[in-house]
Each structure stands twice: as C-alpha cells, then as structure tokens.
Write a structure and sequence with these properties.
This protein has 220 residues and is α/β, with parallel strands linked by helices. The chain is built from 8 helices and 10 strands. The strands form 2 sheets. It has a 7-stranded mixed sheet, with helices on both faces. α3 (37-42) links the parallel β1 and β2. It is globular and about 65 Å long.
C-alpha cells in the first residue's frame, strides 16, 4: 500500500547507486493504491522481492513478514522498503527486528507510516501511530539519514542506514501511541481490542440518547 506522497518521498530519497545491481525486499508489497516498485525497477536492481500476507498485485511471495528470517536469512538484502505497513502490524517490534536483521550492514531501510491524528483504517487491522521521536528512538541503533513529516496527512517518512557494526536496541519496554487505546502502551491486549470494537459499534449503531447513558457509565 502506498500514497502519492510516499512515492514522491521514495523517489527523492533513493539514489540510483543505492538501488542499481542491489537486492531489494519490499515488506507489505500488495499494491492497493500505488507502489514504489515500478520506479525502483527503472533503477535496475539485481532483484526485487515483494512480500505480503495476502496475494495480489506486487506480491511475489505470500508470507507473514515476522517469519521471513527463517526463509530468507540474515543480512540478505541491500535495501528493505516498507510503505504504510508498520501501523497495521500488531507485533511491531518483531517487524522492526526483521527489518534490521534481514538488511545487510551498510544497507538501507525506507519506511513510511502514519502518525497520530490519522483516522483508523483497518484494512484489515490498524494499531499504532509513529511520530518523529519514535522513529529516532526505535532506530537509534542505526543512522537515520532522512526523516520528515508527510505534508499531505499525519504520517512520517524515514530513510535509515544499518551500521557496519550493528548492535540491536532492546525495545521491549518502548511505548507507542495506539489507536486502539488512544494512549501510549507497550502492547495491545485482547480486552483492549474488545473494548475498541464495542465502542465503534456503539458509535455507529446506537441512538444518541442511549449513547449518553452509556457515556455516563463509562462504556462509550
């Protein structure tokens, strides 16, 4: 999934010499409303592998991205691209770990994702929002070469380079803003999900007088 502003960022951020004759991996590659792939392929990479959990345009390999290391190995790609994936992955730490591990030392990670203020968009799920400081903290074990806000809607773009001598951060206690709980948390529980969807149902289906009653008792 990708937007026009994501594509424009990728075009401006990636240089020909960073792609030409390189091995490229795209995580979350299903082309729903645009993709960087057609541009990147004009830069003549050695290979381009698009991975997604669902079949569709732009998907070469159907796989949960958290399981890619078993199949593809470590330090396997020169560039990892992830556009509009991270907010949709409940286990974001594992996805970040895969990105950092599967890219070669000296290689690149290109990310676009959504920030606080962007509406819930569950296709099929939506969990997190990332801010400038989150990207800086999460990738403080790498070099963040470019980081900028999406000028069109709440979102953040980043170009990150893995160092030659890499030691991965411990992110187990890091809290992200969740659209499920409307606050920063470490992890989302099944109870959090039930409350969230109950509130969404109430907001859509329940008449306003009943909503007022439910708000008084803390349900809506």
């Amino acid at each position: 999934m990708c937007t026009l502003s994501c594509i424009e960022f990728g075009i401006s951020a990636l240089r020909k010499e960073e792609i030409e004759s390189k091995m490229i991996l795209e995580m979350g590659s299903r082309n729903v409303n645009g993709s960087l792939r057609s541009y990147i392929e004009t830069l003549k990479p050695a290979s381009y592998l698009g991975v997604d959990i669902q079949e569709g345009p732009g998907v070469d390999y159907v796989k949960d991205v958290t399981l890619l290391l078993d199949d593809l190995g470590t330090n396997a790609f020169d560039c990892v691209i992830s556009t509009e994936l991270l907010e949709h992955t409940k286990n974001w730490r594992e996805v970040i770990h895969v990105m950092k591990t599967i890219v070669k030392p000296g290689g690149l990670i290109l990310i676009t994702t959504r920030s606080k203020g962007f509406q819930y968009h569950g296709y099929p799920s939506d969990y997190w929002r990332y801010e400038h400081d989150d990207i800086v903290s999460i990738f403080s074990d790498c070099s963040v070469e470019i980081i900028k806000n999406d000028s069109c809607s709440p979102g953040i773009f980043a170009k990150i380079r893995k160092p030659e001598h890499f030691s991965e951060n411990d992110l187990s206690e890091y809290k992200l803003f969740s659209v499920i709980t409307n606050r920063r948390i470490c992890d989302i529980s099944s109870f959090d999900m039930k409350i969230f969807f109950a509130r969404r149902y109430i907001s859509k289906k329940i008449p306003e007088p009943l909503k007022k009653i439910l708000r008084k008792i803390g349900i809506s």
